[in-house]
Amino acid sequence: MDWFNAVDTTYRADLRELNELNFARFDAKLEQRLAEFEAKLEKRLAELDAKWRVRWDRLDAKIDRQATEVRAELQTAMACQKAELVRLMFAFWLGTILPLGGLIIALHRALM
User: Fold this and answer.
1) How far is residue 92 CA from its own chain's centroid?
2) Domain ranges of the chain
3) What's the predicted TM-score (pTM) here?
């Protein structure tokens, strides 16, 4: 019976050692694969970041270009509106001063 217990203890020790070695190999492979995955993930994130930076730069340039175009159109429109306003003001004052001048002349003749 002691011999069976000794064999059993030996087998258990061998089995425990084998399991520990297998676990150590598994753990090493897992660490390696996790490191590879992390490196691959970092690379892909860097590529994605670079892509988004290019897209944002393009969008920023497009917005700047469109803002410049809108600004130029607004300046042109404001210049046209200003010219129109000056023309209308001249017509208003001319329409006011001529009858007023005529009234002054008529009153002057009537009083003389």
Assistant:
1) 50
2) 1-80
3) 0.51
